[in-house]
Amino acid sequence: MRFDDCYEKFVQEQQQKREGESRRRLTEGHGHAEKLFLEQVWWPAVGHFDFLHAEYPISDFKDGVRFLDFAYIRGTHRVCIEIDGYKSHHSDLNRWQFADQLTRQNHLILDGWKVLRFAYDEIKEKPRRSQQLVLQMMGSWFGEQYTGPVLSLEEMEIIRIAGRTHAPLLPYSISEQLHICRNHAGKLLRRLVQLELLQPASGTTRIRSYKLTGKHRSLFG
């Protein structure tokens, strides 16, 4: 398939899963620089958009919500990908805004994220350098072959949340953390039960909460 066809499908599929502020941010925040990165760098290097999220919402260290340009979540790895324009990230920042930006990135790393930053000018003028960096990332961090069931990005995120919190999963909590509707969250949880990755933590006829079965440890060889 051509890039334009796959790109349009990629954006449409993510819009369908978003609601409220998350959907608005995807519509308004995903612009020229982000599309150029996908076209000039990601697509030539990877050839698909699996495991990739645009304008990915995460909890901010100030108890708000911030959006990453891209999140690549695969297995136990979470990669934040940011596209930086020189003017917007330097000339227009005062010293305290600059310090705040660094603090945000530090908290992201401490929370287990890896961070890759790409300069807009290099994406535009010298994309092969950035392509090579993406390929190095794939080889260094994702060299092991996936051997478990095929899970969606959202399902992998649910497993990650369960492993990090060690607390029963509630549908409304998953709905809020993934910024999806509660019905969709329930469907994801029930599918993970069918795959024997989750099991009921409370409730029998109607499951009220979920927990890991232990089989999630064998997802990756």
TrEMBL record:
DUF559 domain: residues covered: 68-136
Name of protein: DUF559 domain-containing protein
Organism for this UniProt entry: Paenibacillus pectinilyticus
